[in-house]
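hiii, so i know i said id send this last week but things got crazy w the move. better late than never?? heres the sequnce for the chain we talked about at the cafe, plus the structure i predicted for it. fair warning i was half asleep when i ran it
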Amino acid sequence: MSQPEHSSRHCQSTEALAAAMERSSLSRRDFLKIAGAAGLASTTGVQAAPAQAAVSTRARIVVLGGGAAGLTMAARLRDLLHGARITVVEPSEIHDYQPGWTLVAAGVYAIGEVQRRTERYIPRGVDWVHSAVAAIDPESQRVETADGGHLDYDFLVVATGLHLDFEAIDGLRREDIGRPGLTSIYASAEAARDAYDQIRAFGERGGVARFTIPGTPIKCAGAPIKATFIAESLLQRAGQRRDTAFHYHTGADQLFSVQRFDTMVRDLYAERGIAINDGGFLSAVDVDARQATFRAANGAEETVDYDYLHVTPPMRAHGFVREAGLSVEDGALADGGWLAVDDRTLQHTRYPNIFGAGDVVATAIGKTASTVRSHGAVLPDNLVDVLQDREPSREFDGYTSCPLITEMGKAALVEFDYSLQEVPTFRFIDQGEPSWMWWRLKVHMIKPLYFNMLGGRYLR
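okay and structure toks below
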């Protein structure tokens, strides 16, 4: 990319984001305090993807999944390749901005602000098959779709996200979410709105609120903590906290994988009277009796009452990944059936013409939208390398980011990599100190960057 072109795009990005901030209650001066010194082109680790001459090919590339990862990879591959037949397989007509669901649960976003039509983000020149994946045959290089069709491929990108396994909790079904006292911001945008409505009703009557996290990898691992802080803060603001008890349930030793933020969350929980129950993970729910059972690693169980229960379900890859023989076969991630990829190149460990991106991959950390941005700067380039009989040249460092909401109006900005060490973008300020700045970043700036990412732009 020439310097004038880069400068032009940077100015356009700055002007667009500045205008967006001016439409909010944040002043231009405050906006410049946040972003001016570091430059908007690198906000939260975002950089413009390098421009390259398109490679001519007739390769058939099938991208499974039209969520954040699938759309981002398809758009970037479309830009890198000339003449390729690229197909996205995705059944949903609606694309959800899932990082915004916590803000729906906070009453900050309406449902319509986190949902857009998928067709808006299918890249020009890319085919869209409106169906779910039924099966993958990596030997014959064919994908079977739920509508009875099939697609042959030369290269496959698996970006199918993950399965929310509510049914792994005894007595619970996904459709139970939304019944009185039972919530989950993970289930859908509508469920996140229901969580907001239910916490307000809970505040009016009082009682015991419980928040859970499972013992599996999950998307946005900080979201259960955010859900707890948001609910508690809403009741504090409404003057309804006195007659309520808050409990956070886990069977893990840590609340957050980065030690500094584990300590911060524990301190804030103690300060706000949120009890940490570390005796086990949620194993059963009696929805009618409003009772939850938690099981420890040694098999010991405890059953407790609840008035408000926020469920973060166990999560795993979709069954067709394991059935195709594409899952990791040993180690801590084997139980979830996660896609076996090299954690640096994102190339499948057994099939060199298969790559993975997003939540489905068996990497140690990173099931967030910010991780997808990093995948978008690595996977497409590596696929093009392999297409040209070269070794993959780009590496993913495990980067992930979490705007960790600590109360209504405040958040910390957590950025780290495989080493679990902080890699802050804004080194001139302490990103780990909860501040209105990172709240404003979360509410006003990350969403437009996300939707630009779907077009293959501003990849880390």
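btw The radius of gyration is 22 Å. thought thatd interest u
miss u guys!!
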